[in-house]
Write a structure and sequence with these properties.
Belongs to the peptidase S41A family. Keywords: Hydrolase, Protease, Serine protease. It comes from Nitrosomonas stercoris. InterPro entries: ClpP/crotonase-like_dom_sf (IPR029045), CtpA/B_N (IPR055210), PDZ (IPR001478), PDZ_sf (IPR036034), Peptidase_S41A (IPR004447), Tail-specific_protease (IPR005151). Helix 7 runs parallel beside helix 8 and helix 8 runs parallel beside helix 10. This protein is of the alpha+beta class and 473 residues long. It has two domains: 89 residues, PDZ domain (Pdz3 Domain), CATH 2.30.42; 248 residues, 2-enoyl-CoA Hydratase, Chain A, domain 1 (Alpha-Beta Complex), CATH 3.90.226. A hairpin with a 5-residue loop joins strand 18 and strand 19.
């Protein structure tokens, strides 16, 4: 069991390299780089070119540059050039990674990547300064305070956006559809994310929202389910699981959430990569989701939680761990998936510690749903597509990111064509959804939740109606 969990602890499934803006990292891995894995024949000519460039910079650059800076930047470029999710973590970033899954961190609360020299917003995290200020997916940050972003590396921009809590920062952004740049003043904060939120929509119908997959998400989910069952004055008839705008997080937490609703030993997700550690099958058993030898927090769940009708809500902000859960529930036909196409983050990142308390975050595998579907650059397609009521319709997905990893199963051209069609339909949906822009997920104005509850009622009430008619006849 411990061997299995040791493997799982290696997996990092956050959304983008730029997630460090909010100092929120999605997993920690303690894996030593094996010496034999780095012994390869080195390209002599390319190394000679590197040496020449290094020498020219040292001798001819307008200002003196330290060797350490040049080498660090070369390492950065080597990893960033692979895909949007591989990165070098300096000692400060690595330290933040190791505490970032606790659900409390400092920053603005935005996930970002780099595009055409500007910082592009993947998603503002719910209940954070960026979210409350009105930063949106697809916004291009062109200035941080009075400094232009053009020419900065992503890490440089991230460090400028960090700062002490209660200090102000101005972000100038370019937004599609706006004639002039927009300026947002944000106040940095210590951000506490409530991973699981729940409520009883009406007697017999529960609502659970997962905002992010953290260390205690599985336990919090179990507590939320128990509370819903206890609060409802009638037997539970249906449940809505809301994964909209959930960027992902810890893999074992995604397995725990899936295991709460699926039969024991069900295959939740499997990964494929080049190394033996990158090939795993994760199932709905405690050994795959408990991070220690503690009590199984799912063992006392109400039996009917495995069978009551479910609707799972997703959108373009549902990524990584969210897609694992949605994919598993969909493949087993355990839940109806409703909403819009998900982000398409189907690659696995492993944290490999180096010397001097630094590390690299390296893409090591793709993950697949139980039926063998690769989510990478594609995402999960809902059973009931409903983009019109998506209050945060996404124009940006994994396939839109520069150097994204391909799907592994399908031709890139087909993926891009599908993404183009989706983007066009989303633009049309955005126009219709403007009145919902300030809507809070799970609120009375949440039209997709209303549709989900209505759908659950048709699932639970139709059999009764049919029986009544047969009796009457």
């Amino acid at each position: 069991m411990r061997n299995v969990m040791n493997k799982i602890s290696l997996i990092f499934i956050g959304v983008v390299a730029g997630v460090m803006v909010s100092l929120n990292f999605s997993a920690i891995a303690n894996k030593e780089i094996k010496e034999e894995s780095v012994v390869h024949t080195l390209p002599i000519e390319e190394l000679r070119t590197f040496s020449q460039v290094f020498g020219r910079i040292k001798s001819d650059y307008v200002e003196p540059v330290e060797d350490k800076k040049l080498i660090t930047e070369a390492i950065n470029g080597m990893l960033v050039g692979l895909d949007p999710h591989s990165a070098f973590l300096d000692s400060e970033e690595y330290k933040e990674l190791q505490i970032g899954t606790q659900g409390e961190f400092g920053g603005l609360g935005i996930q970002v990547t780099m595009e055409d020299g500007l910082v592009k917003v993947i998603s503002p995290i719910e209940d954070t300064p960026a979210y409350r200020a009105g930063i949106k997916t697809g916004d291009l940050i062109m200035k941080i305070d009075d400094t232009a972003v053009k020419g900065m590396t992503l890490n440089d921009a991230i460090k400028r956006m960090r700062g002490k809590p209660d200090t102000s920062i101005a972000l100038t952004v370019i937004r599609e559809g706006e004639a002039e740049p927009l300026v947002f003043t944000l106040v940095r904060a210590i951000i506490k994310i409530e991973s699981v939120k729940s409520k009883l929509v009406e007697p017999g119908y529960g609502y659970i929202r997962i905002t992010q997959f953290q260390e205690r998400t599985g336990e919090a989910l179990a507590e939320a389910i128990a509370k819903l069952y206890k609060t409802s004055k009638v037997p539970m008839k249906g449940l809505v699981l809301d994964l909209r705008n959930d960027p992902g997080g810890l893999l074992n937490s995604a397995v725990a959430v899936s295991a709460a609703f699926l039969p024991k030993n069900s295959l939740i997700v499997y990964t494929e990569g080049r190394t033996s550690d990158a090939k795993m099958q994760l199932r709905a058993n405690p050994e795959y989701y408990l991070r220690n030898t503690g009590r199984d927090f799912l063992e006392n769940l109400p039996l009917s939680i495995k069978t009551i009708p479910m609707v799972t809500l997703v959108n373009g902000g549902s990524a990584s761990a969210s897609e694992i859960v949605a994919g598993a529930l969909q493949d087993y036909k355990r839940s109806v998936i409703m909403g819009s196409q998900t982000f398409g983050k189907g690659s696995v990142q492993t944290i490999l510690p180096l010397t001097n308390n630094t590390a690299i975050k390296l893409t090591t595998a793709r993950y697949y749903t139980p039926n063998g579907q690769s989510i990478q650059a594609k995402g999960i397609t809902p059973d009931i597509l409903d983009e019109e009521t998506d209050n945060n319709s996404r124009l940006l997905r994994e396939i839109d990111l520069n150097r994204h990893l391909d799907n592994g199963h399908e031709e890139e051209a087909k993926q891009k064509e599908a993404a183009k069609a989706s983007k066009k339909s989303k633009k049309e949906a955005d126009k219709k959804a403007k009145k919902h822009e300030l809507m809070e997920f799970g609120s009375e104005d949440d039209q997709l939740l209303v549709k989900a509850i209505d759908h659950l009622k048709t699932m639970t009430e139709k059999p009764k109606q049919k029986t009544a008619n047969l009796t009457k006849d």
